[in-house]
Structures are given as C-alpha cells and as structure tokens.
C-alpha cells in the first residue's frame, strides 16, 4: 500500500470522486452535501492524496487549510470493493501527520448523520476526534455531524 500526492487527473481517481459525490447526494439533501467536486479539490488551500495497491485505487483523502493553525479533512473515500483493507485508516493517519508537520493545532471535519456514515464516524473516533459544533462557514444542520481533534506538535 502506498500513499501518493495526487493531481486529480487519473481516470480511477475521477471515477471514485464521482462515486463519492453521487453517494453523498443519495444520503443527504442537496443543501447538506459538503463534498467537494474536482475543481474545488484542485484549490490552492487543499492537498489531495490517494492510496494504491499496485494499480488498484484503495482510497483518497484531502486536507484543507482553514487557517495557519486549523485544517479540515475532506473527501475521505474508499471504493466499496476495497473496503476493509485499512486504506482509510492509512490515509487519515497520513493527513494527520501532515497537519502536525504544518503546525496545525486542530483538525476538524464534517460528515453525515445518516446511518451509512457510522463506519466513518467510528474511524474518526478511533483517532480521537470528538463531536463539536459547526466550524468555519458551516451552518448548524441536522444532516451534518462535526468533529474535531486537537493536535500535539509534530516530533522533530
């Protein structure tokens, strides 16, 4: 399993992101979908990674800089056929390592409240994320669950 900085041009990555967006719209009302499309994921404030086993795409995830001390986890996704292999855990650990290296004091995320989001919520909780209120520009929303993690500084 390898984690790569990704430029969002490979067909498998684009397919996974289309699957991700479609699934988010299946599970939440449109006004409650905060998943980013490819154009927004290419923004200068976002770093995007993919996880591979050979040529097989196992997962993706991104880190958005909200401020010099606060990051946001975005676009965590594992294809249905590749779940259970630890790729989501690996990319989340990588994202948190990078956040610490950048000196962020906190990393937050938004996920859904539909029962289908429970595995993701449990993954985040296993890393120490705790529920919080809306952050950044997010409004209060019954379809959104907000979580945050205070980070210890990176070990040099």
Automatic annotation (TrEMBL):
Pfam families: Acetyltransf_1. Residues 3-152 form the N-acetyltransferase domain. It comes from Caenimonas sedimenti. Keywords: Acyltransferase, Transferase. InterPro entries: Acyl_CoA_acyltransferase, Bact_Acetyltransf, GNAT_dom. This is GNAT family N-acetyltransferase. SUPFAM superfamilies: Acyl-CoA N-acyltransferases (Nat). The keyword Transmembrane helix does not apply.
């Amino acid at each position: 399993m390898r984690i790569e900085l990704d430029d969002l041009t490979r067909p498998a990555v684009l397919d996974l992101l289309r699957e991700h967006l479609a699934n988010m719209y299946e599970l939440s009302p449109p006004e409650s979908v905060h998943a980013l499309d490819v154009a927004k994921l290419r923004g200068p404030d976002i770093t995007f990674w993919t996880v591979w086993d050979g040529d097989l795409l196992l997962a993706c995830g991104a880190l958005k800089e909200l401020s010099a001390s606060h990051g946001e986890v975005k676009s965590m996704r594992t294809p249905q056929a590749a779940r259970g292999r630890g790729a989501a855990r690996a990319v989340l650990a990588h994202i948190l390592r990078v956040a610490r290296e950048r000196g962020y004091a906190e990393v937050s995320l938004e996920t859904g409240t539909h029962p289908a989001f429970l595995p993701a919520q449990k993954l985040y909780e296993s890393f120490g994320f705790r529920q919080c209120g809306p952050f950044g520009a997010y409004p209060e929303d019954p379809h959104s669950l907000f979580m945050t993690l205070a980070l210890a500084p990176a070990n040099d």
